Amino acid sequence: MSDQIKFLLDEDSIPKAWYNLAADFPTPMPAVLHPGTKQPAGPADFEPLFPMELILQEVATERYIEIPDPVRDVFKLWRPSPLMRARRLEQALDTPAKIYYKYEGVSPAGSHKPNTAIPQAWYNKQAGIKKLTTETGAGQWGASLAFAGSLFDMDITVFQVRVSYDQKPYRRALMETYGARCVASPSNETECGRAILAKNPNSPGSLGMAISEAVEIAVKNPDVKYALGSVLNHVMLHQTIIGEEAIKQMEMAGDDPDVVIACAGGGSNFAGLAFPFIGLHLRGGRKRRIVAVEPAACPTLTRGKYAYDFGDTAQMTPLMKMHTLGASFMPPGFHAGGLRYHGMGPMVSHAYELGLIEAKSYHQVKCFEAGVQFARTEGIVPAPESTHAVRCAIDEALRCKAEGKSETILFNLSGHGHFDMQSYINYFEGKLVDQDYDEAELAASLAALPEVAA
C-alpha cells in the first residue's frame, strides 16, 4: 500500500465552474421573502446590497456557473489546496479508519474564506463599486475580504464582533495590513449600533449585530455595497470549489469517503466540501454520511427551529427560511467566533430538512483537546472553528476502531489557528471553560420569530 500523504493537483485543475446544489435538490428551496411585505423577494429587492451578477447567482438553478478567468487567475495564488492523509493521527488513534483532510489554511488569509471574497470583490469591481462593508466574527472573513480588496483596489470596512475584536487582535492587525478599516461592533457609527449600546454599553456583540451595522452603511450610501462571508446561496456556490477539488483528489488517492465532515456556523465551509458529494448522490451515486458539526453553545441545526427569520439583529435583511435560534439570540463568547451565528444557511438547512445531512454539536473544551492532538500528530494548529471538525473526525475514527470497521473519513480543515493562540493558552492554563446558552433567552428569541403565513 502506498504511504503517500499529500495529493496535489496542478493549477490547470482548478475547477472552471462552481457547482450549484439547487439544481439537484429533489424539492425546491423555500422563497426568500421581502422583510416588509413578506412576499417573495425579487432581484430588485437585493440591489441596494449586491451587484446584479451576484444577485443572479443567488437565485440561480443551473447546475454549473462559470468561474471568470480573472478570478481563477487569483485562485492560482493558493489553489488547488492540498488533500492530506492524516497517517500519524491514524496511528495515534490506533484506528483501522483512513482519515483525510482538505486543507484550506494554505490561502494567503489563512482560511477558506477567500474562495468567495475574491469573486465577490471582482463582481463588485466590474459593477463600478469601489467600497464594500461587511461583518466578521473571528476575523477570517474580514481578513479575506480585506485581502480581496487589496488586490482589486477597493475600500473595505469591517465590523468585527466586539468579543472577537478583543480576543483576536492579530486578525484585526491582518485586516489593517491588507488596508481595511476594522471597527468593533456594536459601534457608534450606525443607528443600530448606537441603539444597542444605549441598552447595553458593554455588549459583547454578535454576528447578527455586526451584519446590521454593515447593511445599514450599504443601504444608506448608494456608492457602497455589502459583502457576506457565509449563509447566502452565492457564498455556498463559490465555496464548492473545495469539494470539486476533493473529489478529484480522492480519486488520485484511490479512495472514496464514507463520512464527510465539516464545522458549520453559517455553513460556507461545510457547503464547500459537502455539496459536491451530496450532488454525486442525488445524481445516482452512493449515499455517504455527511456531518455538519456545530458548537453546543450556538446549536442552530441541532436545537434551532426551521422557520423564516431575519439574517440580522436589526431586522433589515430579507427573511430566509433556515434553522435559527432567533435573530435576537446572543450566543456566549466562546472562542470559535466564526460559529457564533444565530442561523444556518438556507441551503444547508434545506439539505438537513431533506435528510441529506446529519448534525452534531460539541462543547469547546473537547474540541480544543482534539485540536491539540491533531497539532501534535499532523503539525497543523487548527483554528477554533476547525477543531469542531477535527473532534468529529477523531470520534468517527474511534467508532471505527470500536466496531472494527475500516471506513474512509474526509473532513475540511478550514483554517489555521496561528492568530488564535490566546485561546490555546487559555486551554493549557485551564481557563477555557464550556459555555452554554441561556434556555430562557433562547425561548424568548424563538418566540419573537416573525409571523409568516404558511
Automatic annotation (TrEMBL):
Which pathway is recorded for this entry?
Answer: Amino-acid biosynthesis; L-tryptophan biosynthesis; L-tryptophan from chorismate: step 5/5
Q: Which Gene3D superfamilies match?
A: 3.40.50.1100
The Tryptophan synthase beta chain-like PALP domain sits at 76-415
Residues in a coiled coil are none
* Documented EC number(s): 4.2.1.20
Cofactor names: pyridoxal 5'-phosphate
Q: Which reaction does it catalyse?
A: (1S,2R)-1-C-(indol-3-yl)glycerol 3-phosphate + L-serine = D-glyceraldehyde 3-phosphate + L-tryptophan + H2O
Q: What Gene Ontology cellular-component terms does the record carry?
A: cytoplasm
- A Pfam entry, by short name: PALP
A GO molecular-function descriptor: L-serine hydro-lyase (adding indole, L-tryptophan-forming) activity
Residues modified as N6-(pyridoxal phosphate)lysine: K113
Q: Which of UniProt's keywords are assigned here?
A: Amino-acid biosynthesis, Aromatic amino acid biosynthesis, Lyase, Pyridoxal phosphate, Tryptophan biosynthesis
What protein family does this chain belong to? Belongs to the TrpB family.
What role does it play? The beta subunit is responsible for the synthesis of L-tryptophan from indole and L-serine.
The subunit field of the Swiss-Prot or TrEMBL record says: Tetramer of two alpha and two beta chains.
Q: What HAMAP family does this protein's entry cite?
A: Trp_synth_beta
Q: What is this protein called?
A: Tryptophan synthase beta chain
What organism does the record attribute this protein to? Rhodopseudomonas faecalis
